[in-house]
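Re: [ENG-882] Designed sequences occasionally contain unexpected residues at chain ends

Forwarding the minimal case from QA. Structure tokens:
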């Protein structure tokens, strides 16, 4: 069992930045790939970014490539999402998730956090 707690969401103006954190419980954090997803009202949950266990490989949705950066610190059991040049369309609840592989597919992830709200005003 892995428990995930996201933090760092909030309200920011367009063009601003936020850094999300996701702290995981358990000693096996380094064995898992991690992903960030988001869900806007009335829309399906969508892939944002993922990172392999070692942190050596990262993957991004086209909509955030070049603006968002995913990273992890296995000594702190934490994964981060640095979000720059934020746009109103980035407004959503952001979720971190744990999985065996760094896939873009939500159902491949085994554990999910409760989510943190990100609101970008124009």
């Amino acid at each position: 069992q892995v428990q995930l707690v996201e933090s760092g969401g909030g309200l920011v103006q367009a063009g601003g930045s936020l850094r999300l954190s996701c702290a995981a419980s358990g000693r096996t954090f380094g064995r898992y790939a991690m992903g960030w997803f988001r869900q806007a009202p009335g829309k399906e949950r969508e892939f944002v970014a993922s990172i392999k266990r070692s942190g050596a490989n990262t993957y991004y949705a086209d909509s955030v490539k070049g603006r968002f950066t995913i990273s992890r610190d296995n000594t702190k059991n934490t994964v981060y999402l640095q979000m720059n040049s934020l746009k109103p369309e980035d407004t959503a609840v952001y979720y971190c998730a744990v999985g065996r592989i760094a896939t873009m597919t939500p159902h491949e992830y085994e554990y999910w956090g409760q989510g943190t709200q990100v609101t970008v005003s124009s």
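QA comment: On inspection the terminal residues look reasonable. Residues 7 and 21 are 5 Å apart (CA to CA). Proposing we downgrade this to a documentation issue.
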